[in-house]
Amino acid sequence: LFKAAGAPCCTSTVYRLYSAARSSGFCSAxxxxxxxxxxxxxxxxxxxxxxxxxxxxxxxTSAEIRNLADVGNESELQARLGSRMTFGTAxxxxxxxxxxxxxxxxxxxxxxxxxxxYVKEQFGAEEYQKRGVVIGYDARHNSLRFAELxxxxxxxxxxxxxxxxxxxxTPFTPYVVKTHSCLAGVMVTASHNPMxxxxxxxxxxxxxxxxxxxxxxxxGHITRNLTPWPTSWDTTIxxxxxxxxxxxxxxxxxxxxxxxxxxxxxxENASLGVKVxxxxxxxxxxxxxxxxFKAFNLPEFIPVKEQQHIDQ
Length: 312
What we know:
Blueprint lengths: L10 H14 L1 H9 L8 H13 L3 H12 L3 H8 L10 E4 L9 H19 L1 H6 L2 E5 L5 H14 L4 E3 L8 H8 L4 E5 L8 E7 L10 H10 L20 E2 L2 H11 L7 H4 L7 E2 L7 H10 L6 E2 L9
Parallel strand pairs: 2-3, 2-4, 3-6, 7-8
Antiparallel strand pairs: 1-5, 4-5
C-alpha cells in the first residue's frame, strides 16, 4: 500500500506511515472490519521502535522489533529498547537478539565506536596507527560477525587491526596485546554462558581486563557515538586490507613456548599418577589445552568426546 502510494520504501519510513495510520484510526477501522483487536503502543515506545528501525541495518533484528510492534508487545519492546547494556570491567554480556539491551550488530557497532574514540583519546594518533588493536572470537553464533564489525569500525577509525583468521581460546587475545604491543584487545565470547548469549570482553594495553575508571569512561564515549558512522556496516573493507594482520601463526609459534616459563617441575610432571578429564564445552579450547599439557610435560587428559568439537 505505502509503496503504491509513492512513499519511500525503507523500513523506518514504512513503519512511521503505518504508525500514523494506526493513530489516525485507519487501522482501527480495518480491525473492526476483520473482527481483530489491534493493540496500540505508547508514543514513547513507538518512538523507540522508529529509532531502532532507522539505525539497524540487519534485516533479521529489524524484523524482530517490527514484529513485536505489530502485535503491540509493549513490555517486550520496553525491555529491549528502554535500557542499554552497561559496559563494565568485564565488557558486555547478554542474550543475542534485537534491542539495546542485547548483543547484536548495532550494539556491537555502537560499543566499538565508543571504545575506538576512547582509545584514540588516551593514546593519540601516532600510537593507535602504529600499535593498533587485536580482535579475537570464539565459535558461538554471531561471534565472527561481531568480530568483523568491530574490526571494520577500528579500521575506519585509522587503527591497525590484528584479526584472528579463525576462532581461538580467550587467552590468545590478551597474549597478542602483550606480544604485539597493542593498545587494546577485544574478545567476542560469553565464556561459560548458554548458547543464546554472547559478549564483548575488553583488554587494555597491559594485557589485563579493564578496571575503573576505564569502564565508565568507555560507557560515556559509547553513549556519545550511538549513530553508526556511514562506514561502520561495510565489512568489505577487511578484504585484502594491508592494515589487517592475522596474528594466529605467531601465536601458535610463541604461546606454547612462552607458557613453559611457568612450568617448574617439568621432569616430574610426566610421572604424575593423577588422571584428568577435560571438556572444552563449546569446542574452542580442546587443541590449545592439549598443546598446553604437552608444553608442561603432563600426561594426556581424557577428553569428553561429545564436547570436543563445535556444533555445526
